[in-house]
């Protein structure tokens, strides 16, 4: 992996970072697909049924597998497996408000099929449903919740995706928007890029883009990607 930064005046609102990689690994929710309204609906309904604080749940649920969040917050006596199945079924049926993250469609359309993967805490069926609802293509490699025994922040998912694509983790760039996923990407030995406004401790020193409109990729040869990232001091306006 090589990283260079274009030299711009200190008053410039943005600078360009250039990386080379063999593979790009994407989280889904919040990175490729904006599913915020559905996620909030799901967990607020869960909280309401069980008399829980929805805001507390939402503060930690993002980027983690549904069953892990249920196990953490469900009151004593609740069948966690049955509750998880209920939530997952509801999410599969609920695509109202699902949209692509700005720039996602254009970026994915230009990537060689063997060069990218999705690593998500969603189940495979839900991931396919949301990607389809957002009008985004599906990769040949999709690592979902049921494909790992340890969810994010464990690096298992990213290590599995890199292995499937035939690349070393150090040669992969990960695009993530939440703490658990960024911690997983760091632990896997990849190069993480923060997508969006999340600014927890794990983001210190990491490259950040506003959304995927700030990412461009060329593939000059087999197994080689040149990735340009626009790092802004002022975020892009909403599309």
What brief labels describe this structure?
239 residues; alpha/beta; six-stranded parallel sheet; four-stranded antiparallel sheet; 8 helices; 12 strands; globular
Molecular structure report:
The chain is of the alpha/beta class. It has 8 helices and 12 strands. It has helices at 36-50, 54-61, 66-73, 80-93, 104-109, 124-133, 156-165, 179-188, and strands spanning 3-5, 14-21, 23-26, 33-34, 99-100, 116-119, 141-143, 172-176, 191-195, 207-209, 215-221, 224-232. The strands form 3 sheets. A 6-stranded parallel beta sheet has the order 7-6-3-8-9-10, with helices on one face. The protein is globular, with a radius of gyration of 18 Å. The model is unreliable at 5-11 (pLDDT under 50).
